[in-house]
Amino acid sequence: MAEKDFVIDNFDVLHNAGYSKQAIEIIQKFGMQQNITNAGYRNFIDVMSESPFLVEKFNQSVQEGRIRNLLFLESGASEGGHYDSGTQTLRIPSVSVVYDPSNSDQMPFKYALMFVMGHEIQHSFNREIQNYARSRYMDEIRKEVKKPDGERNFTAPMADYMAVYRRDEADAQIAGYNAVLSPMRQSNPNLKLKDLAYTTKRMADFLIRDYSKRLVKFHGDYQYDSETFVIQPTDKNLEAAAHHYFDRNSKLGCQRNSNYVNHYVRSMLEIAIDADLTEKARNPSHKAPFALDMQGFKVPRIDNPNEFTNIPLNEYLIESNGLRIKSDKPVPYIDTSTGNTGYFDKMECAHIEVKPDQFAAMSLSVSGGGKFSNAGGFSVGSNTKAALANEKQLVSEPKKEAAPEKETKPDNAPEPDLDF
Question: What is the pTM of this model?
Answer without folding.
Answer: 0.82
